[in-house]
Structure formats: C-alpha cells, structure tokens
UniProtKB/TrEMBL annotation:
Catalyzes the oxidation of 5,10-methylenetetrahydrofolate to 5,10-methenyltetrahydrofolate and then the hydrolysis of 5,10-methenyltetrahydrofolate to 10-formyltetrahydrofolate. The gene is folD. This is Bifunctional protein FolD. Keywords: Amino-acid biosynthesis, Histidine biosynthesis, Hydrolase, Methionine biosynthesis, Multifunctional enzyme, NADP, One-carbon metabolism, Oxidoreductase, Purine biosynthesis. One of its GO terms (molecular function) is methenyltetrahydrofolate cyclohydrolase activity.
Amino acid sequence: MSATILDGKATKDAIFEELRPRVAKLVEQGRAPGLATVLVGDDPGSQSYVRAKHNDCAKVGIKSIRKDLPADVSQADVEAVIDELNADPECTGYIVQLPLPKHLDAGPLLERMAPAKDADGLHPISLGRLVLGEEAPLPCTPRGIIELLRRHDVELNGARVAVVGRGITVGRPIGLLLTRRSENSTVTLCHTGTKDLASEISRADVVVAAAGVPKLITPDMVKPGAAVLDVGVTRTDDGLAGDVHPDVAEVAGFLSPNPGGVGPMTRAMLLTNVVEAAERNLG
Ligand SMILES: Nc1nc(=O)c2c([nH]1)NC[C@@H]1CN(c3ccc(C(=O)N[C@@H](CCC(=O)O)C(=O)O)cc3)C=[N+]21
C-alpha cells in the first residue's frame, strides 16, 4: 500500500485562486487588505518564511508591509512598531514572526497587538473566542490541516484523531477546532508524558504529528489506511527532518509530506484570515 499524498502546495495554489477575486472586490470597494510582518533578527529560517509570506501576498494582490528589526532591538522599540501597526489603516492584519530572541518578552508583545488585526489567530483574545465558539481568526496551522483533509475528502466526522505535541501553535488549539460540531472528531492529545504513544497512535484514523521529534511516528504504530500529517520540522545535520518516518507512506492511506504539506497550508490560511477580517469589516 502506498499513501495518497496530501499535497499542500497544490492545495495552497487552489486557495490562492479563490482568494484573488475576493481581494480584487475588496480593493474595488476601497477596503484593500494589507498584511504586515514583524521580523526580529536574522535567523535564516524565519527570514525565508517571511519572504514566502510577502511573495504570497503579491500573488493574490494583498498589499504587504515589512518591519524588519535588528536582533538586539529593545522591548520598547518592538512595542513602538506594534503601536504603529495597530494605528496604520493600510495594515488590516499582521504577525510577529516567532520565535523572538530570548531578551524579548513575547507574551506582552503579542497581547499588545490589536485583536482585530490578529492574522495568526494566536492572540489571547482570539484563542479565548475559539474556546467560547465565537467568531475569530483561527490559528493558521490547525486550520490548514483541517482544510487539507477536507479538500481530500478525509472523513473527520466521528474520526479518532491522535495529536502529538501540546504546543500553542498546533497541538493545543487543533483539538478545539476538531471537536467543534462542524468537525465532530474525537481527539486524544499526546505529549511527552503519554505512557504508551504507540497504542494511542494505533487507534487513530488521523494522526497529527506536531512534536518536533524527528521520525517519532514509525510504520509499526500506524493503523493501515490512516491519514498521517507531518507537521513538526527539525533542522538536523542532514537537513530538515519531519516527525514522521518516511516508511509510514507504506502503511498510511493519506500522508502530508514535509515540506510540501502543512507548511504551505499555514500560509494559505494566514491570507484567508486577512481576507476574512477585511470582509467582516465591510459589514
Ligand atoms: N507568528 C508566527 N506565525 C507563524 O505562522 C509561524 C511563526 N510565527 N513562526 C514559525 C512558524 C513556522 N511556519 C511555517 C510556515 C510555512 C512554512 C512553509 O511553507 N514551508 C514550506 C517549505 C519552506 C522552506 O523550504 O523553507 C513547506 O513546508 O513546503 C513553514 C513553516 C509558520 N510559523
């Protein structure tokens, strides 16, 4: 058996095609969406992600604004940039690229962002609204995972989903999305304290591997035919390594590769959040 590839790159391109006319309509109505990024320091990975986001904006016609700050920028200077973006009418949504250098206190900076301009869906107000079931921008990676599964007709209704990793960007929020009535999945959140990871994984119809541990998910753990999403990335001496062992492709029914899976979907959902927020503001 060889898994059907959940092609995040092609799906992202399809979503961009759908966004383009919506952006054009907003521009016509004088309400052009604008995405800003705040990038601190010169980490090559972060720089390449941010560059990709600006290229994406150009592709769908969204104006983009770059705020690149030196690695040794002060907390007060980042605060000033956040205040500036909160007040800038050309910026309808923005992100502060994570992780920030250790000398900066990320929590207060993220809370300082205007919730109405939260493009990541990771502002405490947005996460609170997600818990409450109120309308809010949704966290991009979990939303991208669900959209990728939906567009490949992978059943979520009643499905057993094993999530591995309890991080704030993926593991923690994805359970909130998947247990809404619209998804209706049963979610098990696994982490380093999980006693028998293999047995949890073996029961799952869908596995979301977001632990950041290379090759953590091996073929023997996976139920034949399950959908497996490789979300974690680790930089190793041999290049980028995902959380899923390549041989899982022989057992799984569906597999999202890494790269080429959830990463591009995260970017597609970032732009979707920006467009939706601009549409909401139109009333
Ligand atoms: N505030 C904030 N929001 C984020 O959404 C955020 C962040 N900080 N910090 C870092 C992580 C990571 N992340 C990725 C997005 C796209 C790809 C992506 O498109 N990757 C391509 C490959 C890109 C390459 O080759 O470098 C792929 O998987 O095919 C990867 C990683 C967003 N993050």
